[in-house]
Amino acid sequence: MKNFEFLFTAWMVVWVVFFVYEVSVARRISQVRQEIERLKQQLQQGQD
Amino acid sequence: MKARLPLTILTALLIFAAGYAALFIAPDEKTMHAIQRIFYFHLPSWIAMFSAFTVVFYANVAYLITRNRKWDALGVSGVEVGVMCCTIGLITGPLWARPVWGIWWTWDARLTSTFILWLLFISYLLLRGLIEDPEKKASLSAIFGIFASLDIPLVYLSNRLWRTQHPQPVILGGPNSGLAPMIAKVLLLCVIAVFCVMILVLVDRYRLEMLRNECAELRFKIESRGSETGSYGLAANQPAMGKAGR
């Protein structure tokens, strides 16, 4: 297949960009959740 | 959240179906042959980008009217997702252009206006990172977002208004435009697949922004309680603003 390398690269770019971005968002969500838990515990400790 | 799993499975199936259809079912284009198949993911990424930036425009206008932080969260989420789709389009375009035109890039109206759009929304994200005050950040971002969105119709109309190296529109492009029925069907499947991915990512990014807002509220509560009691709410060995909550 002529120019297959360009087609393959474009194909990979589309899904790699989507995948990397989604993983980065999921990682950031997990970090913020941990931070929220930590702050909630801190708030509760202050009330006790 | 309950709809998340079925939507993810549906999107994954659509991606496989679209990929298979684009590579094996769509007919070979007479002049460009295999390289034309980039079109099945290049055009849908632009459609996803236009949709994301349209969401940004409405979210920014809604924020300035209502001052509700949810609109700001939707705005920044739309910008990040739109920039991602725009990046895909800006990479896949030159990968198609090199074997077809013999060059990677040319500064014609369509390509230049798209590159400017990408730069504008990158600037939007940089601007947000520079402002600490949440209200000021949201207001200035909304104003800048509306300004940046003015480039969207220009990008869309650029190859209709001016003669460009970029191909003339094949959809809604006038009497001599149009697609072969099978190409149109495969393209529609690819548009739906990429659009579903865009929606999934947008929903996740919005969730992240809302969690960040929650985090900021908790931090504010702790700090204000600390100032009321005369002690600092945050322990000395903990950062005033965690990296995750920025």
Task: Kindly describe this structure.
The complex is a heterodimer of chains A (48) and B (246). With 48 residues, chain A is mostly helical. Chain A has one helix at residues 4-47. The longest helix of chain A has 44 residues, at 4-47. Chain A starts with a helix and ends with a helix. Chain B has one domain (21-26, 33-205). Chain B is 74% helix and 0% strand. Chain B has seven helices and no strands. Chain B has helices spanning 4-25, 39-66, 69-101, 109-130, 134-149, 151-161, 181-229. In chain B, helix 3 (69-101) packs antiparallel against helix 4 and helix 3 runs parallel beside helix 5. Chain A binds chain B through residues 1-4, 6-7, 9-11, 13-15, 17-18, 21-22, 25-26, 28-29, 31-36, 38-40, 42-43, 46, and chain B through 15, 19, 33-35, 37-38, 41-42, 45, 80, 84, 87-88, 91-92, 95-96, 98-99, 194, 197, 200-201, 204-205, 207-208, 211-212, 214-215, 218-219, 221-222, 225, 233-235, 242-245.
What would you say about this model in short?
With 48 residues, chain A is mostly helical. Chain A is built from one helix and no strands.
Largest interface (CB < 8 Å): A-B, 32 and 44 residues
Q: Helical residue percent of chain B?
A: over 70%
Which value, in Å, is the CA radius of gyration of chain A? 21 Å
Beta content of chain B: under 5%
Low-pLDDT segments of chain A: none
Broad shape of chain A: rod-shaped
- What percentage of residues of chain A falls in helices of 4 or more residues? over 70%
Give the overall shape of chain B, derived from the CA principal axes.
globular
Mean pLDDT of chain B: 88
Q: What count of domains describes the coordinates of chain B?
A: 1
* Oligomeric description of these chains: heterodimer
Overall number of strands of chain A = 0
Structural class determined from secondary elements of chain B: mainly alpha
| Order of helical and strand elements of chain B | HHHHHHH
Radius of gyration of chain B: 22 Å
| Major sheet details of chain B | none
The separation of the N and C termini of chain A measures: 71 Å
Largest sheet of chain A: none
What string, H for helix and E for strand, traces the elements of chain A in order? H
Strand runs of chain B, count: 0
Proportion of residues in β-strands of chain A: under 5%
